[in-house]
Amino acid sequence: MKGVLGSIAVILFVIIAFGMFYYSSYNRLVKLDENVKAAWSNVDVQLKRRADLIPNLVNTVKGYEQHEKEVFEHIADARSKLMGAKTPNEELKANTQLESALSRLLVIVERYPDLKANEEFTRLMDNLEGTENRIAVARKRYNDAVTVYNSTIRSIPYNFIASKMGLKPMPYFKVEAPKDRSVPKVNFGTVNDNKTSMIYGFSYA
């Protein structure tokens, strides 16, 4: 009788221990998932904030250069995709396209000293610079959250629980170099003498 009771006690202990572990692991994964979503929300806000600045910036540049229709169309297309993105993957892809188009636009700006001295353009570039700084901060926080989340859901035994919860790896927010080597790379945080290179430092691979 004592042996039976002992076996039952062991089984109950194992069940309770497993239940406690599952409960704590589930809550940890929920917390990490929410951390990633909150961090992405901050990124999303800043990307949309930048997208809101772009139409006025484009219109200002159009006043000096009417013949770069392809660049203006690429910017409008990428902005439209970003604003309509439903997932982080879609938004990150659209953002890469938008950054490439913006870098082309700012190359055009370099041809017009009067444009760079324009008060409206200067104000827009100041706002864009501040937004780029906010994006950089939000990007780091998001990537940090994704690192912890992705590594956890791939680790044993969390991977078993994560699969039951339907959790999948989240994409990192990477700044990609352009495929076309003739296109200037977007280099955030480079400070030069003028506002355009303060936002995007131009260098060629």
Mass-distribution shape: rod-shaped
Helix content: over 70%
How many strands? 0
Would you give the CATH topology? de novo design (two linked rop proteins)
| Poorly predicted spans | 178-193, 195-205
Count every helix, treating DSSP H or I runs of 4 or more residues as helices: 7
The CATH architecture is Up-down Bundle
Mean pLDDT: 82
Described by strand count, sense and barrel closure, the largest sheet is: none
Instruction: Estimate what percentage of residues fall within beta strands.
Output: under 5%
How are helices and strands ordered from N to C?
Answer: HHHHHHH
How does the helix and strand content classify structurally?
mainly alpha
CATH superfamily: LemA-like domain
> What is the subunit arrangement here?
single chain
Radius of gyration: 25 Å
